[in-house]
């Protein structure tokens, strides 16, 4: 009987989280003014202009340590009916630029996935996810590490 109650509790928590708006980390290592001055396409410019509205932090790097990032000014924002996003641009010289944010009102239009684009300028990877604070890059690993031993014990 306690096993059934435990599964009911886990299901209720997971269902409750999915039905609410999520939160996403918001930060960038991109020099927004320099980047935006080089873009001429109005559609890209309109979307990329949002990079101006997130905190600049060197702790926003791809190896994201949440505690250090939050102490350095990284925020988590509510993402109304949206998905979280992490964009990594790697220049040809190996320098990485990261942007973490929310894409609001996109939950029905954008699925959780990663897309990679390679050009003469470098490599771009954009990943989206629909879990709470999932754009840290570590949420899935932590959840798996916590639930897998529990599943083995209850087996």
Automatic annotation (TrEMBL):
What are the protein's UniProt keywords?
Biological rhythms, Cell membrane, Disulfide bond, Glycoprotein, Membrane, Signal
Transmembrane regions? none
Its subcellular locations are:
Cell membrane; Membrane raft
Gene Ontology biological process terms in this record: regulation of synaptic transmission, cholinergic; rhythmic process; sleep
Q: Which GO terms describe its cellular component?
A: membrane raft; plasma membrane
Q: Which Pfam families match?
A: QVR
Tell me the domain of life: Eukaryota
Q: Which residues form the signal peptide?
A: 1-19
Entry-linked InterPro entries: QVR-like (IPR031424), Sleep_regulator (IPR050975), Snake_toxin-like_sf (IPR045860)
Major site of localization recorded for this protein: membrane
Q: How does it sit in the membrane?
A: Lipid-anchor; GPI-anchor
Q: Which PANTHER family match?
A: ATILLA, ISOFORM B-RELATED-RELATED, PROTEIN QUIVER
The UniProt family comment states: Belongs to the quiver family.
* Subunit and partners: Interacts (via loop 2 of the three-fingered Ly-6 domain) with Sh/shaker; this interaction may stabilize both components of the complex and may be required for targeting or retention of Sh/shaker to neural cell projections. Interacts (via loop 2 of the three-fingered Ly-6 domain) with nAChRalpha3 and potentially other nicotinic acetylcholine receptors; this interaction is required for antagonism of nicotinic acetylcholine receptors.
As for what it does, the entry says: Bifunctional regulator of neuronal activity in the mushroom body, and possibly other regions of the brain, that acts as a signaling molecule required for homeostatic regulation of sleep under normal conditions and after sleep deprivation. Reduces neuronal excitability by enhancing Sh/shaker K(+) channel activity; possibly by stabilizing Sh/shaker to increase protein levels, accelerating its activation kinetics, slowing C-type inactivation and enhancing recovery from inactivation. Specifically affects the A-type K(+) current.
Q: What is this protein called?
A: UPAR/Ly6 domain-containing protein qvr
Q: What organism is recorded for this protein?
A: Caenorhabditis remanei
